[in-house]
Amino acid sequence: MACSRYGALHAINAQNKAVAERDGMRTYEYNPEVMWENYLKLNAMAEWEGATLQSSLDQMVELSLITGYTRIRSQEDMKASLLAFKPILTGSQNGDWSYVRDYKSYRLRSDGRIVGHIFCIVGFD
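^ thats the sequence. predicted structure below, dont judge the formating
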C-alpha cells in the first residue's frame, strides 16, 4: 500500500541529508505521513489498490521531487549508487513480513500467498 511512497520519500530524505552534509548546508526532509495523506486526498483508491513502486517514482518525477531514476543491474551498480548518495528502492512479492518485523531477518512466505513490500536501501556493510 503506502510502502512504495514511504520508501521513495525515505530515499529522497536520505539523499538530501547526505548531499547537505557533504556541501555543509542545512537539509530539508519531507514528512512521509503528510505526503501520503496528501496523495490519498488526490487518489482515495490508492489505499485499497496499493501504489506500485513504478507509479510512485513516475509521480515523484512529475512533482520534481526527483529528477529521474534508473535500474540497478549488478552488485557493483548497487555499491556505486549508494556511494554516490543515490538510495535504492527494491521490493519483494512474497516476504513473510511478520517474521521480518519480529526477527529483523528476511524470510520467504511458506503459505504461497503473494504479499508485496518495498524497501529503501541507504547503505551497505
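The mean pLDDT is 76.
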